[in-house]
From TrEMBL:
The keyword Signal applies. It comes from Bradyrhizobium aeschynomenes. Gene3D superfamilies: 3.30.1380.10. Residues 185-253 form the Peptidase M15C domain. InterPro entries: Peptidase_M15C, Zn_M74/Hedgehog-like. Residues 1-26 form the signal peptide. Keywords: Signal. The lineage of its organism: Bacteria, Pseudomonadati, Pseudomonadota, Alphaproteobacteria, Hyphomicrobiales. This is M15 family metallopeptidase.
Length: 263
């Protein structure tokens, strides 16, 4: 943006772009928590800077943004602020920087309260059945109804069904939704534990652990069509293909990492 004052005073806009161009401002903790609250309006009522406040009145500590904590510690013991701390890129995928894993920090207390605990039946009671790709595959899939995830996946499915058959082939058969077990390298529940993630066609998939032992940094691979990624992201789902520890068939509902129009 060119300086508004200069433009108002001069017959020809002679703003000083070098002095007045916007500088990207790092988001504060309050900004990050605003983003979280706006992303989950059915569950969250607000925050006070130190804690998020649920609609049922529960206060949950947001934790601290501590750059001294190791990546592994944040992966295994993510605070709510850790969960929001890595920016999620959009557009054509590029090789992620080492340990750039936006979305892999997940605060387990937050998601268990939101979706239920799969080990005690809390997730199952919120499952609904949708038909995945009715025009091209047409099989039933059980997903959570919390946060409108099932309805959003129906819209994703309808849009993928309209893609070129060669492209939509990457979206079926699906490799799974609900899986009540922790992620191998974190010991924490993935979004599959809440039935809020979907793995698409394994034949198109690349996964960091398959090549991690061979070289470092981990070589990035992806064969997933960008059109499918774009559709999921428009509906609030992030893609595992944007992670350094990539998992390219994986999509999970994480609207707090996407722009407001995707929520
Ligand atoms: Zn997955």
């Amino acid at each position: 943006m060119i300086g508004r004052t200069a433009c108002w005073l001069a017959p020809v806009c002679v703003g000083l772009p070098l002095l007045t161009a916007p500088v990207a401002r790092a988001e504060t903790a309050a900004d990050l928590l605003d983003r979280l609250v706006q992303a989950y309006p059915q569950a969250l009522a607000g925050h006070d800077g130190d804690a998020i406040i649920w609609r049922d009145g529960t206060r949950m500590p947001a934790g601290k943004l501590d750059p001294q904590r190791s990546f592994d510690d944040r992966l295994r013991n993510a605070t709510i602020l850790d969960q929001l701390s890595q920016p999620y890129p959009r557009g054509q995928p590029s090789t992620p920087a080492v340990n750039a894993d936006p979305g892999r920090f997940r605060n387990e207390a937050l998601f268990k309260k939101m979706y239920g605990d799969c080990s005690t039946g809390g997730v199952t009671r919120n499952l609904v059945t949708i038909t995945w790709l009715p025009k091209s595959w047409g099989k039933s899939v059980s997903v959570t109804r919390i946060n409108g995830v099932a309805e959003r996946l129906k819209r994703v499915s309808a849009e993928i069904d309209e893609l070129d058959p060669k492209i939509r082939r990457a979206a079926f058969p699906i490799a799974g939704v609900l899986s009540c077990r922790p992620v191998a390298d974190t010991g924490r529940m993935s979004m599959h534990g809440y039935a809020a993630a979907i793995d698409l066609n394994l034949d198109y998939s690349d996964y960091w652990l398959w090549s991690a032992k061979k070289s470092s940094p981990i070589p990035y691979k992806n064969r997933f069509p960008q059109q499918i990624v774009d559709i999921f992201e428009r509906h609030g789902f992030i893609w595992g293909g944007r992670w350094y520890h990539y998992d390219t068939m994986h999509f999970e509902y994480r609207p707090e990492l996407l722009p407001p129009q995707a929520r």
